[in-house]
């Protein structure tokens, strides 16, 4: 007889659709000051971080999201030295940023210190670079950090949850305007912008708002199995550099599992129904 714990968790990605995992062990389950946090173990995807009942990252597929958030803007910018990550307390984006020798300092600002604490404990392969001397970790409000910054960063990456709870302000036009102010004159930013199957209106709104602020605004995609629909989008806003016009000489060798220079360009080739959301 199978003696495995038969505890199943379902993330309800819409009212009528969800994705279900068998959970073998619950490491942590608590209501933090900001959100419901669970750290669980699954057979299919390994250790998994859940926030407010949504899958944030897993051992098995985390590299897709983190590589595509970090490397697309960092290879687009010719000399990124000062980088900011808003959210991303699991440390995956920071890990990828540290692969770029030009980066002198990366600042991570996450509102929930428990995410950072438990990621270090249970997701060491993801959070391992949070103690790197080139990294400054701030437990605080990313929206307010942006508001207080001016002409400071070469690249800003918004690694947020979906636009609910503490992350709602990170999907507003005012926030994107603040990002523009916080960036240097040739700065670039990228934000995760959910999926085109269930949240097309969100993508349309973000594209419209970012286009009003950044002269170069584009959408790209990646496949993340544990995120709603598997197709995930990212919006990039750039003051000067076109992410589809990166010279071959700018790419340098880094260890990746998903991202490649060829994929960098291919990610901007969108299915027609997704391309229509950018118009």
Automatic annotation (TrEMBL):
Matching Gene3D superfamilies: Spermidine synthase, tetramerisation domain (2.30.140.10), Vaccinia Virus protein VP39 (3.40.50.150)
Cross-referenced PROSITE patterns: PABS_1, PABS_2
Active site feature: 159
Binding site for S-methyl-5'-thioadenosine: 35, 110, 141-142, 166
Family annotation (CDD domains): AdoMet_MTases
Domain PABS, residue spans: 6-239
Record field: catalytic activity: S-adenosyl 3-(methylsulfanyl)propylamine + putrescine = S-methyl-5'-thioadenosine + spermidine + H(+)
Known pathway: Amine and polyamine biosynthesis; spermidine biosynthesis; spermidine from putrescine: step 1/1
Protein name: Polyamine aminopropyltransferase
Organism: Exiguobacterium sp. (strain ATCC BAA-1283 / AT1b)
């Amino acid at each position: 007889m199978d003696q495995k714990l038969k505890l199943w968790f379902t993330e309800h990605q819409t009212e009528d659709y969800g994705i279900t995992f068998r959970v073998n062990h619950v490491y942590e389950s608590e209501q933090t000051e900001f959100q419901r946090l669970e750290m669980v173990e699954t057979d299919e995807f390994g250790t998994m971080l859940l926030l407010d009942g949504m899958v944030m990252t897993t051992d098995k597929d985390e590299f897709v999201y983190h590589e595509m958030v970090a490397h697309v803007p960092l290879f687009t910018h010719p000399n990124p030295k000062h980088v900011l990550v808003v959210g991303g307390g699991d440390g995956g984006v920071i890990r990828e940023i540290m692969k770029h020798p030009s980066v002198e300092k990366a600042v991570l600002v996450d509102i929930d210190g428990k995410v950072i604490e438990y990621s270090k404990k249970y997701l060491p392969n993801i959070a391992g670079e949070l103690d790197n001397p080139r990294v400054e970790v701030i437990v605080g409000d990313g929206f307010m950090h942006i508001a207080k910054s001016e002409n400071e960063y070469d690249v800003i990456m918004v690694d947020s949850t979906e636009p609910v709870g503490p992350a709602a302000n990170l999907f507003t036009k005012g926030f994107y305007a603040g990002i523009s102010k916080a960036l240097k004159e040739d700065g670039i930013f990228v934000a995760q912008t959910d999926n085109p199957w269930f949240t097309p209106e969100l993508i349309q709104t973000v594209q419209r708002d970012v286009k009003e602020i950044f002269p170069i605004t584009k959408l790209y995609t990646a496949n993340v199995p544990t995120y709603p629909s598997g197709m995930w989008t990212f919006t990039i806003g750039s003051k000067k550099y076109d992410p589809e016009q990166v010279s071959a000489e700018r790419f340098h060798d880094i260890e990746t599992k998903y991202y490649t220079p060829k994929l960098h360009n291919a990610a901007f080739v969108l299915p027609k129904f997704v391309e229509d959301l950018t118009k």
